[in-house]
Amino acid sequence: MSNEIEAIKDPGLPAHVHRRADTDPKAAAKAERQVAILFLLSALGTITLIASYIFIPQDAFIFFPVLGDTNAHQLFLGLGMAASLFFIGMGAIHWAKTLMPDEEVIIQRHEFRSEDEDRADLIATAKAGAAAAGLGRRSLIKRSLGLSLGLVGLSPLILLRDLGPLPGDELKKTSWKAGTRLVTDPGDRPIRAEDLEVGAVAQTLPEVGEGVHRKLSDIGKDAVLLIRLRPEEFNLDAERLSWTHEGIIAFSKICSHMGCAVALYEQQTKHLLCPCHQSTFDVTRAAKVIFGPSARPLPQLAITVDSEGYLIAKQPFTEPVGPSFWERSS
Amino acid sequence: MTASERIAGTVANYVDERTGAAKWMKKNLNKVFPDHWSFLLGEIALYSFIILLLSGTFLTFWFDPSQREVIYEGAYEPLEGLKMSAAYASTLHISFEIRGGLLMRQIHHWAALIFMAAIVVHLMRVYFTGAFRKPREFNWIIGIGLLTLGIVEGFLGYSLPDDLLSGTGIRIAEAIIQALPVVGSYLAFFAFGGAFPGEAFIPRIYTVHVLLLPGAFLALITIHLMLVWYQKHTQYPGPGRTEKNVVGYPLFPVYMAKAGGFFFIVFGVTAFLGAVASINPIWLYGPYTPGQISAGSQPDWYMGWLDGLVRMSPPLESHVFGHTISWNILIPGLIVPGILFTGMALYPFIESWMTGDKREHHLLDRPRNAPNRTALGVMSLTFMLIALINGGNDIIAITFDLTINQIMWFSRIGIFVLPPLAFVITKRLCLSLQRADRDLVLHGRETGRLVMMPHGEFVEVHEPISPQKAWLLTQHEQNPPLALEESDLRGVRRPGVLKNKLRARLSKAHAVAIPKVTADDLKEIEHH
User: Fold this and answer.
1) Nearest partner of A270 among A321, A198, A182, judged by Cα
2) What CATH superfamily classification does B31-294 receive?
3) pLDDT bracket for residue A2 (50, 70, 90)
4) How far does B454 lie from chain A, in Å, by closest CA?
5) What DSSP element (H or E) covers B509?
6) Nearest CB to B317; choose among A85, A164, A324
7) pLDDT (tens digit, 9 = 90+) per residue, B156-192?
8) Are the beta carbons of A261 and B290 separated by less than 8 Å?
9) What's the CATH architecture for A182-313?
């Protein structure tokens, strides 16, 4: 193509244009003063920093138009630090740009490929080395070395085994059992049906004995959301309807997608929305997924009331709660 | 001779007498660096890394990386008496009781955001100018490694305070691990020391965040810089600049002063942001508990695209022989990012395979002169941008009064439609710009001066452009596509026909160009 045709010629590096400070001593002196002022501003910044550290109390607040109420201690400490650093940089660059030589310099590159002779030598050396080691001929050594190198990679894996226990059926079960009372979170108070008005939502956990410590890993599986609708608003089969109590329905609060807490309830549409990835569940249809990436409804917890009228679980969850995993069967 | 000249000479003499490095040092102090603003992007990344090391070290003096439960009794009254992890409590302590602690936390977080942004923009500069070509493929791969590690390091870093927002992020990471076929739940239990969240994860990622990954960064950055040093920097094309030379300023003193000064400017600007711009106010989020969440949960920006991909995924899950495969997590969370990053890492080799070009390149391309590459880059960016937009769909929905469903459907369709569209448009734009270059060289610059000819016609006066400009617009190579015959001279089909066909097609697409102006063209036009 056009490569064989005569191309436009490279006119070469343009002639150097001198700066004012190169020719005019007055301009050079001015530039020097400017650099000095910038360095002095930096020093002033450090002094501001020290003064703010010592004299401004940590709980002093100050109002600034854009920032609003701001902690004066942090603000002036930061501004002082910013100035002390920024102006050193500005000074150095101004110095380089106005007073240091700005004449462009040309150096030559070398090709990275070595001389043919050196390359031939290297290749010969490499070949000779490979031949001397004799791996090609001594297949017994080659194979046993391959075996031992392969096995040696296993030892870190073995040694890391105690990082954690095996999952067992931990992912499949929760603390809910038949008869476990639902208690408020926070507060740990048992709940009666009449405590919840129609349209209300409550976050609950299984009741634990007095002084028993709740582990976060239990909350991560046990959190349950109660929602009260009018019973006629449900669109459930007979079994699922029997899992509700007087319009109160209970779902695992742990998203069936990636385990976030499904906390946004929209009263008008009766939709539950997960704030992480916007999986949307229809409460009236047993938390069926109507939008978003989740592939499964939120597991429903069957509830009823005990002899004292407090809400209890009728039975444990019938499926694992939370995000999917390989051993999950449905 | 001034005092400073005498000292410089003495130091040089002292060092040489003990190392014999005079020749080497002379060469390197005189090393020439080409000047261009876009060469500062990588420097910003480097300086942010230094700022991260310094501010991070400060934070470790008070941070307690433990998930042991404590009752808070600190200066921040709204959380008084609450149960929380020691990690969260010590982050509150740094923020409210250590003088300058909040400032350092904010500087550290801002520096992390700037670090990642600088890496991404630096990568774009390297890509669009073709700086990754031979001999710089290694450095490209190291760069992709640094980008990947940066994402992980950033994620681990903002997870450490164990607040409600970051804990939710860890929960999502756990769900991704748990979704891996066969080994998922085992790996999750090993990583977390049992069921999520456990008490082991924060201390473990702390070691990774402050020791393992910074060590890997230091090693990779050192190799990255040594290669830049040894291979010498690329330069933009222009008069007097060739593949065989470097035009610029010597390391000592000009470049040293500029680069050193620039470090202080980056640090100063980061400190300014830390002083005035609140970031990650963890005391507002509260301590992490898996049963709670706040609306509008957003990761840091460099994770946003990943979150956006996960959000837009359709609800796909397979149940086979009593096992579950979560495509809705695996595809957006691992498979697509894996393909993207592998493709990106291999791109220098793919391009050289397409063009058959195995020569060294030290002069950068103007992006318009590599339309295919530029279009591919814009296509990838469009993909990432849509994913990122969807990552903030809840915030965007509230801000612009849209529904989440609208944005989600826009993203789901747009992620397939818009990137190819961006490719086509960009390629056309590049070719148009080439055409404009051609016109400029042939007919000169439009002056805006209208002249009335004797016969009444109005014409605009064109002024020829300078020889320097004409050179800049015509210096690039225009190579023909690879000629890959399907059969050899005797008419026998070559092996690997399909592969060759694909290669020939790609090579042809890559070689599309508007012919650049030659000296002959100019001569011809003078005759008219």
Assistant:
1) A198
2) Cytochrome Bc1 Complex; Chain C (1.20.810.10)
3) very low
4) 35
5) helix B497-511
6) A324
7) 999 999 999 999 999 999 999 999 999 999 999 999 9
8) yes
9) 3-layer Sandwich (2.102)
